[in-house]
Amino acid sequence: MIMLLSMFPRFAAAGVIAALVLGCAPTPTFDPASLDDPQRSEADRERDARSRPAEVVPFLALEPGDQVLDFLTGGGYYAHILAGVVGPQGRVLAHNNAAYHEWVGPDIDARFEAAGLSQVMLHERELDDLGLAPGSLDAALMVACFHDLYFVDVENDWPAVDADRVMAQIAAALAPKGRLVVVDHLAGPGRAQRDAQALHRIEPSFVVEAWEAHGLRLVERSEVLFTGRDQLDRSVFDPEVRGRTDRFILVFERDCRRSPCA
After folding, report:
1. Which domain holds residue 217?
2. Does the keyword NAD apply (predicted)?
3. Which of 6, 30, 201, 258 has the highest local Cβ count within 10 Å?
4. Is residue 260 included in any domain, yes or no?
C-alpha cells in the first residue's frame, strides 16, 4: 500500500502495513533467530512484542563488520540486538548522555561485558559533543528519542538541546549512503514539534524536513508499528495508550549531493 498524500494519514485501517520505498535497494532480511540469544534478558524478550525489532532493524541495512550508533540507547535493548547483526568484527556505539545514564541506572555498565559482546562500546557523551568521527558510521538508530531534542526538563538535568547541532554531528558521521533510522511516537497533523514537551510526540513531516536540512534524503517510511489504538492527544505515558502508541519509521541516507562527504 503506497501512501502518496500526507505523511502517515490516520485513515489507514488498523493492522495495515504502509511503506513507501523511494528508489532505493531493498533492505536486507533480518534473522529473527538472533532474538533467541540466551544472553538477552526476559525483560528484553517481553519488549520484543511491543518494539518489533525484526521489523525495525532491517531498515538499517547492516552487514557484518559495520559500525552503527544506537543514539540514546537507554538500557541497551537495541544495542544488544545490533551486536548480533554486525558480529564480532563490527562495532555498536551504545550512546547515552549523563541524564539518560542516570535514568537507566548502573546495569548497562555490566550488561554487554556479561554477554561477552566486545563489539559493543559504551559511548557516554553529551549531546553537544558526540565525539563521532566524520564518515565513520554505516548506520545510526534513534528510537523514541528524536522528540527529546525538543524536550526541556531542567529540574531533571535535561536543559534545552541544540537540535541542529545534534543532527549536524550525526549527519557528518554517516558514511556516503550511510543510513539513519528514526522511530518515534506519532503526533497529529500540523503539530510539528509542539507536542514533544507535554505528549512526547512529534510529527513525521517535521522530522523529514529537519533531516533533509542536514543533507539526508528520505528513502523509506513505514507504518508497520501503527497499532490503530492510539489517541494522539494523549501523552505516550498515559495508561490509556502506553505501549500502544502509533510509531512511525523514517529511513534516511546521507546524500553527498546535498552535503559534501569527506
Report:
1. 32-254
2. no
3. 201
4. no
Domain at 193, CATH number: 3.40.50.150
DSSP secondary structure of 113-173: HHTT-TTEEEEE--TT---PPTT-EEEEEEES-GGGGG--BGGGTB----HHHHHHHHHHH
Q: Is residue 11 part of a domain?
A: no
Residue 7 lies in a domain: no
Name the amino acid, one letter, at 127.
L
Q: Into how many domains does the chain fold?
A: 1
Measuring CA to CA, which residue among 136, 144, 132 is closest to residue 199?
Answer: 144
Q: What is the pLDDT of residue 262?
A: 61
Residue 106's pLDDT band (cuts 50, 70, 90): confident
| pLDDT at residue number 7 | 42
Q: Which of 41-45, 105-109, 205-209 is predicted least confidently?
A: 105-109
Helix (H) or strand (E) holding 88: none
Residue 71 one-letter amino acid: F
Residue 261 lies in a domain: no
Of 110-114, 116-120, 135-139, 202-206, the one with minimum mean pLDDT is 110-114
